[in-house]
Amino acid sequence: MAAINRDDVAHLARLAHIEMSAEELDRMAGELAVIVDSVKSVSEAAGDDVPATSHPIPLSNVFREDVVGHTFTAEQALSGAPDAAEDRFKVPAILDED
Amino acid sequence: MSTDTILSFEEAMEKYDPVLGFEVHVELNTKTKMFSSAPNVFGDEPNTNVNEVDLGLPGVLPVVNKAAVESSIKIGLALNCKIAESCRFARKNYFYPDTPKNFQTSQYDEPIAYDGYLDIELEDGTVFRVEIERAHMEEDAGKLTHMGGAAGRIQGADYSLVDYNRAGVPLVEIVTKPIQGAGSRAPELAKAYVSAIREIVKNLGVSDARMERGNVRCDANVSLRPHGQERFGIRSETKNVNSLRAVEHAVRYEIQRHAAVLDSGQPVIQETRHWHEDTRTTTSGRAKSDADDYRYFPEPDLVPVVASREWVEELRATLPEPPAERRKRLKEAWGYSDLEFRDVVNAGVMDSIEETVAAGASASAARKWWMGEIVGRAKTADVDPAELGVSPQTIVELNGLVEEGKINNKMASQVLDGVLAGEGTPAEIVEKRGLAVVSDDGPLLEAIDAALAAQPDVAEKIRGGKVQAIGAIVGGVMKATRGQADAGRVRELILEKLGVEG
Amino acid sequence: MSELTSNELIRLSAAALAAKLRAGEVTSVEVTQAHLDRIAAVDGQVNAFLHVNAEEALAVAAEVDAIRAAGGAAAEELHELAGVPIAVKDLIVTIGQPTTAGSKILEGWHSPYDATVIKKLRAAKMPILGKTNLDEFAMGSSTEHSAYGPTRNPWDLERIPGGSGGGSAAAVAAFEAPLALGTDTGGSIRQPGAVTGTVGVKPTYGAVSRYGAIAMASSLDQIGPVSRTVLDSALLQEVIGGHDPFDSTSLTDSFDNLVEAARTGNVQGMKIGIIKELHGEGYQAGVENRFNESLELLKEAGAEIVEVSCPNLKYALGAYYLIMPSEVSSNLAKFDGVRFGLRVLPKEGPMTIERVMAATRAAGFGDEVKRRIILGTYALSAGYYDAYYGSAQKVRTLIQRDFDAAFAQADVLISPTAPTTAFKLGEKLDDPLAMYLNDVATIPANMAGIPGLSLPGGLADEDGLPVGIQLLAPAREDARLYRVGAVLEALLEEKWGGPLLAQAPSLVEPVETLVETHGGSK
């Protein structure tokens, strides 16, 4: 498995929306390389015949009936908002359109 | 905004073969959201149809809406899909302020429905089979309003406002396999396909299917390849093409644009395109990038959905007749011509006519009323004909009054206006407005005598066998009775009086 | 008529307090006030609490006292633990108090809803003393990663109280609360329990609702009790447990046999399995000694000690450090400065939402949180998923199979809870890997979803610090932990001549204020 380098960390930080200084990128790359190295044995531990377990206790079909429950008022909804206007959450301009 | 060069559609078709693909998002009309018990309602005050789950507050967990799962299975069945014995939800990770958790709970490698098809009938009756890759469950995002820029556009906006009322509304995303072989009919097929999806989900009762409200939204993929080439070209994905007409136009435009790019020797860029209804063009959105690394993984807060065969069959048994089959059946039952039936369908009054026939009207009378009287009024009022406020019972009653000779067609039209104005039932309005056809022959005969006396030459012509001249006398009588007479009865009486066979 | 000093009151177990409250020997206001006084006296040194909820706690206490004083049906219907105060890890959301998760990014945030476990505490009328310190978003094994300063170990204020739930464990060890709630993703209840000489239980995954516990790693997280006795943990788990329709992973099984199991503990004829891979090399000598001592006591009490092997546990730590950060990277994406919490504007450049999110997360998250988010983003990214996340999920299957095989040979399994006693503050802060190794014995239970209990096993010879003994049971068999735990606890306390915590430093000179008790008074 490829070692993790500074450019990788910069890419991952972009994906994760965390601003990082050059110094942080360097430090993080070093630390992550050690951690990634220590966990690499995992990829060889199990063969193709071993199924993956994503839930420790298997359950299925846990549903909710389609019945309306509680709602917030706009005031409650916005109570923790860093910024709001016109009963809506206010955010700076979105450049990356989609 | 750059303007792209385009080729004429005909030239594009001469050189290239289009391959289409669609991702249609259908908003389900469940009472509550996909993963929370907040109401799924359109148009309420901002941020009031939300609770902690929809806002993605710290500590919240999702719980799947059973009705949404059942609706999704029904859609899968109606699209002739296989229903997965077991499927899971997955998280699609990306940051965007309309996405409260910064991931969308969706399905990835295990959609609830897969491998289906839909037979699409084009206007001339050609049937084209579109293969369905999958239909999967997911949640909608909130609504962003861009402020301060030009006309609510994102470009140049100062800031944006977010309303999470729509966040968490259940969606089913229907994805086609690549659609090949449509040729020059590709734009028409695109429109017909989306129309068919809309009709199916509406018929199933699982979605309000109102495109203007975003209940059905279409992303259209287009690529071109030279005739005879097996390999697909590079595609563009035009997002949020949200009317049937726009789907047709957008596909046509993209075919023309791709053709021009390929003609110039350039490669098509794999990118998102935005549709602009005003200019009927697309503009470049975002190129495919590493930001599209969505890091899907199984949603650990939800457990698998296991659709037992019994459950699936129970749901299958509740499915209504498919729209295409229903149309075929109704057309035959009503005895309409192809043209008549197509007009009825296009005017959106097929359901209303069916109800009117069920209420006791003949198929031809029902058509006459809906197409002749109601569609025009609905257009003026800018509503769907069915929502104008005329019930099938009203039409049966009105038609009965005319057939019984109590009122004539002209009066019936006035009575309909009265019904729409809320003045009461047709009988009440006839009464109130004093519209009844003069049925006592006495006053009529007087008026006929007067009309004959006033035009002796015409009377002579009729006596001589020129029955078509009778119109002038009838007109005189109608004038004298201010239109209250039954013209048919007047005619009969004139002929009787003059001793002429009608 | 008896009189208790407040210093005596705070040393009582929850079960004993509950009995005295029911008997009318003491009021809930007195009990609650005694703990609030203790917090005021020692928390400056311990820093177990991030927020003290005195007013509301006393109001609930007064309400319980009033109901009890009025008598009748309402008094009869009071929950067994009504009026017994409790501390809550600050990862669990509460109306009326801030919830920070130990992070700057949530500083000052108030939840508009209660976690399910909080609703249950309120229904039982247990006064909530306040919110306890933790490693930021529960990521750490020392509570040093809290944005609000480390919690200190009451046994030695220069040492760590374990983590992430160091605040809850230290509060209970320092007699600031008789009970506390913790959360355990890889050992965050049990390892602090071990190093502070307290009892901590990670229930079966799904036995306690996670609704309102700020998610770290959804498939591993579990809320559980922290206490000074095995019986107290059983009492508390019965309060907070049970099916919750707001948590899709919540079990419908009934877990109402825990208190009975703790009260009727018996190991006669039981098979107790030593996990070969979870002791010996890498474990401190004093830890091993206490562990062996416990085995001897259990044997004397009639248990059969067998050795089992779980060979795939060698992959558990690695697999954990792929699954956990992967889920973390997604669960923590919501902290973006849009809907709640901190918003930080970029110092320079264009003011776009993307840059505001990135600046907010850069300023709001500490290093360990960032490290795990980046690691998880990596493990899930295109091209790596199968090798990392996918393989780790397969290892989970192997670990479950190992446990299945082990439980075919033994009724419960036993190991030291942590490889060492409490280390010094700062000792492992710059070495993430060394820090991660603290959880080597606790992580397997989270990976397999099985329940685990840590109880005090004595003091290590070389440093005089507490050692934890861990018991593991099959999924849904939480009662077995309490049955065996209560027996071992009784045997050890008999040997020590009282609770282990009686040997802990007092932190302050006892204040001998007499508390008038009301029991039997006319």
UniProtKB/TrEMBL annotation, chain A:
InterPro entries: Asp/Glu-ADT_sf_sub_c, GatC. Keywords: ATP-binding, Ligase, Nucleotide-binding, Protein biosynthesis, Transferase. Its EC number is 6.3.5.-. The keyword Iron does not apply. It comes from the Bacteria. Gene3D superfamilies: Glu-tRNAGln amidotransferase C subunit, N-terminal domain. It catalyses: L-aspartyl-tRNA(Asn) + L-glutamine + ATP + H2O = L-asparaginyl-tRNA(Asn) + L-glutamate + ADP + phosphate + 2 H(+); L-glutamyl-tRNA(Gln) + L-glutamine + ATP + H2O = L-glutaminyl-tRNA(Gln) + L-glutamate + ADP + phosphate + H(+). It holds the Pfam family GatC. It is an enzyme of class 6 (ligase). Coiled coil: none annotated. GO terms for molecular function: asparaginyl-tRNA synthase (glutamine-hydrolyzing) activity; ATP binding; glutaminyl-tRNA synthase (glutamine-hydrolyzing) activity; transferase activity. One of its GO terms (biological process) is regulation of translational fidelity. Belongs to the GatC family. Allows the formation of correctly charged Asn-tRNA(Asn) or Gln-tRNA(Gln) through the transamidation of misacylated Asp-tRNA(Asn) or Glu-tRNA(Gln) in organisms which lack either or both of asparaginyl-tRNA or glutaminyl-tRNA synthetases. The reaction takes place in the presence of glutamine and ATP through an activated phospho-Asp-tRNA(Asn) or phospho-Glu-tRNA(Gln). Heterotrimer of A, B and C subunits. This is Aspartyl/glutamyl-tRNA(Asn/Gln) amidotransferase subunit C. It comes from Arthrobacter cupressi. The lineage of its organism: Bacteria, Bacillati, Actinomycetota, Actinomycetes, Micrococcales. The gene is gatC.
